[in-house]
Amino acid sequence: MKTTIDKVHEHVGEEVTLGGWLANKRSSGKIAFLQLRDGTGFIQGVVVKAEVNEETFELAKRITQESSLYVTGTIVKDERSPLGYEMHVKKLELIHEAVDYPITPKNHGTEFLMDHRHLWLRSRKQHALMKIRNEVIRATYEFFNEQGFIKVDPPILTGASAEGTTELFHTKYFDEDAYLSQSGQLYMEAAAMAFGKVFSFGPTFRAEKSKTRRHLIEFWMIEPEMAFMDHEDSLELQEQYVSYIVQSVLKNCQIELKTLDRDTSKLENVQAPFPRITYDDAIKLLHEKGFDDIEWGEDFGAPHETAIAESFDKPVFITHYPAKIKAFYMKPDPDRPEVVLCADLIAPEGYGEIIGGSQRIDDLELMEKRYEEHHLHGPAYEWYLELRKYGSVPHSGFGLGLERTVAWIAGIEHVREAIPFPRLLNRLYP
Asked: Model-level pTM?
């Protein structure tokens, strides 16, 4: 009977066949221990010389790392194993022998590993990271489907900037100028006017020449947009969503979190509601912590966000930023127009902003004024203005950066390991 490693718990005491690869091995005279992987997980196969024929044992001793094979044996419980099970091997069938596999069990430099990213993904820690990423994605769909959202896919090629910035990748769209999307938000607002509650999940691109551990050139975003929801409603949805995905990873990725040596006690505390602090109070807090150089009206950098987060044991919302440092579409606070109804959600442990969101301007006259202030002219922006002409309603939305969120949940140092094939300032290969 063929099965997979993630299903071996269903076959205790039974003889089964796995198709997989040899991740590592060790042997001691009359016994060989094969570390096997098949894409669904890792399991140890034990080959005892006295229990197999001579050909099988010789193959077990000489088989090379990352060779592919079929392995037949009996599944038994083993509490010492991270999986809880191992296989007592009866038969080995070599499919393909790998020769001189470049990523050996010794330590390798980051650039070497990134050059071999297509192979590095096979390792235990990288495998664990991709499983956690997949769980965040699965839980995202589950959460928004349960909340009555519809998934809408915005275009990747656009005729204008979503946020009025110049950090765009330019291309030619036949006879027109076009750009790789830096956000699907504007299109999601149009979708929200049609369907009420929508979300998108797709790649976004920022031509930002940054080399920090928090930045990628190409990354994936989850962008919900909600009609008839104000700023406060949006904050409540955000904290429910983040709590949901964290708890889903804790529930379904225990083996992967252990593989990464993640301190899960810090994740167990991630339950709504989250603390909130205004931009004004954040400035005061930073001054108390010795950041005397930051002044009101300036945006926060990574050290500032980390210092603020250290004062809380959960993700923290920073709300009501100055209008002049935020996007043109954010709704001003009616009681204080120099700040906007927005929030950034800052993750604990130095991972920085994982969500940016706001209530959107729904007033046509004010949006026209913003167009003038930001020099947003031409047909590329006309359709967005029309959303305020035909049945405008209060609405809000936010965007969560998948890779930063995965990096935080997994407890890794750099976002480059939170995506299968990272695109960085100095890397377009493989």
From this structure: 0.97
